[in-house]
Specification:
Helix content is 0%, strand content 49%. It is mostly beta strands. The relative contact order is 0.12.
């Protein structure tokens, strides 16, 4: 782990935070967060509760989330309880996980422009 920006932040189970969290590093949450979370990689412990939107490159969720989730690679573990819409590129859900919301595969190309591109309809693909 001698790379320049490979840091890891941990929010312990005794912490309760109100407010948005932005981290350029990896984040491990065991406590409770009331606010939006934006980070590179998120690991959520079983005892953790997040009320707010989550945006991460990769996310591994084992606790409760009340809000939308947007991730490139998302793993929802069997202990997870998700209440909100899920936007993903790659998705893994363990048997026993509870999800109340819609699943939507994200467009593979990030579109930052406001102009719609109707000519490029995404193809339906089945993951193995």
């Amino acid at each position: 782990m001698s790379k320049g920006n490979s840091t890891f932040s941990v929010l312990g189970s005794d912490l309760s935070i109100k407010g948005d969290i932005k981290a350029s590093a990896d984040l491990h949450i065991d406590g409770s967060v009331e606010g939006d979370i934006a980070c590179s990689s998120l690991v959520q412990g079983e005892t953790s509760t997040v009320t707010g939107a989550i945006k991460a490159e990769t996310a591994r969720l084992a606790g409760t989330v009340n809000g939308s989730i947007t991730a490139r690679e998302l793993v929802i573990l069997k202990t997870a309880k998700i209440n909100g819409d899920v936007f993903y590129d790659a998705l893994t859900i363990e048997q026993g996980a509870q999800v109340e919301g819609r699943f939507a595969h994200r467009d593979t190309k990030p579109s930052l422009s406001a102009a719609p591109q109707p000519a490029k309809q995404p193809e339906l693909s089945v993951a193995n």
